[in-house]
Amino acid sequence: MQYIHVASVPFLDVVESSEQPIAFRTTRGRGDRVYRGFGYGAGWLTLAIMGLIGGFLFYQSLDAFRYEGFTFFTETRWITSVSGGRFGIAAVLLGTVVIAVVALVLAVPTAIGTALFITEYAPKRIRAILTSLVDLLAAVPSLIYGIWGAAVLEGQVVYVSRFLADHFGWFPPFHTTSLAGSKVPTTLTDFTASAFLAGIVVALMILPICTAVMREVFAQAPPGEKEGALALGGTRWGVIRDVVLPFGKGGIIGGAMLGLGRALGETVAVALIISRTTDVHNLLQILKTGGNSIAALIARSWTESQGIASSALMAAGLVLFTVTLIVNAGASFVVSRSRSGAATEI
Amino acid sequence: METLHLTENDTGPDAVDDVKTVRSDHENKIVIRSVDADSVITYAGSTAASLALTWLVYERFAPFSGTLGFIVVAWLVFVSIVYVSARQQWGRVAARDHFVRLCVTSAALLALIPLGSIVFSVVERGYHGLQVSFLTKTLKAASTQNKFSEGGALHSIVGSFEVVGIAMLISVPLGVMTAVFLNEIGGRLARPVRMLTDAMSAVPSIVAGLFIYAVLIQPGILDAMGFTGALALSILMLPTVTRTTEVVLRLVPGGLREASLALGGSEWNTTRQVVLPTARTGLVTAVVLGVARVVGETAPLIMTMIGAQRLNSNPFSGLQDALPLFIWNQKIHGGLEGVAQEWLWSGACVLLVIVLVLFALARLLASRAGLSRRS
Lengths: 346, 375
Fold this sequence. Notes:
A: two-stranded antiparallel ribbon, 68% helix, flat
């Protein structure tokens, strides 16, 4: 950055005589002034677009806020019509968070493992191939994840869900009641279209970004300390535990948070998998048919919504925008600090 | 490969005899990362034991079926057996090392199995899509009573190309200009712009659609059409293009810029005639990555393009379809069986092929541009 300032001074005018200290002054031609103007314009436009997104969503959701008032944040039902209804973000937001948490619990350990394998274990040639393949996971469209999850993965996951519900039902997240009553369900249809299934699919979709961030931070672990640990007779796991992981802590947290931001906003894949519910008890039983998310709600009910109903969806979108923005800002902060922070203490 | 040769022959041809005698006389050659018979037998035995035990558990206790469940249980049993037998043979420290190595390796494999499954199932169910009738017909006269060959996705493919093309025309110049601003001009504004570009890349795609709807369609400025869809896509494409271009520009050696400035070139001339041409291949990569980012986007198009069944090649008037919308509408409205399912998977197959080609192209160009990885 510094060098650019020095080098981008096209004409230097010596203002005073050589006895005096020299003052540098930059004069730019008209072409350069236009060029800089366009550059600044492009920069400002990025700022403006982000501001406008927030502003317009807020403006369009005013009708819904006026109609529902503060209860928009506490109401769990989502029943809308052209002129009103009873709707609130509470249950849908809970559903969004539940799916994102399931996705994180599955994706973060896998991402740590994959990143460690790529940086510490894999031979060079496999390393490049594996990196490409993990990135390819990010290139597959959300829509294809959705139809694959509903058509292929579901048929496998229902068995796992039933097994977990039957044998580990005492563990709160796996506690499940049947759709009809309080009996433990045993039919496979009780486990289709669940938040658990959506969570697995979202985990696959956020895996590449988590892995990429962690891989980058792990790769920067000081080689001197790693070799030192090996030379002292440590195993590879010893090196990872005592050098790589403590060094990469920031990357793990940052990668997980970036993944969380993506998971909260996942739309089409989730919309094609879950069967939307606003029943809070059902939302918390992740293995059971149900689940919900803000983005899926908008995608599925957009075409038949007008008036207040459409404004309510705008309000939901505004909440989603705000939440993802906060999570991502936190993630960038953590990642940037972990890169510049106490790197080498030798 | 090269390093291997070096370590074995680094004493040169003259010294080979000496080395041999030294080795045989004093000590055994130390081989790093060797696979010894002990571990081979341990791993093979553990595999057999875990498969047998899992089969037993599966048949005996749990009413637990499905291939996925079998693999999960077998894996858990396998890891435990390896750990126990390694601990018996080599002690706790080595056993933990083996345990972690297994976990890490399987995590990497775990990430790849679904990728294989996705590609396989989409191609298996949708390879019809690559036949001529699907690529040349539309759904104009088609209904779910039709045969597969009577309908196609031509209207969606045309729409996708036009919409992505327009999005490209909007966001590529803007993205490149923003990257030039961040890297060549800089200043106090650069920090917030870089931060918000990062934030923009994380905007949920459906929010981009809501935004365009709220700005243009709701107030009645424009109707839903291909162009509004393209605007929504360009919002999603912009941060990808900006960030990739910025990385590419950073790779242009500073000496080239200084040489140009020292020869009396203006800043604009330096950027246009030195920096951008040097980074040419990288810029193409940025464009391809941006296209790959948006070509499969569905959510923003639901509200800004809505979709159509007939061919409309004018993106500035009337509803238009896109490939993701084609798949989405078949999924939502087409029913679970019959010809709609075939169209759905065929559309998915065409989309996946397009994405894979773009991805491979981006990789190829990136390696040529000297980008070690995309960021």
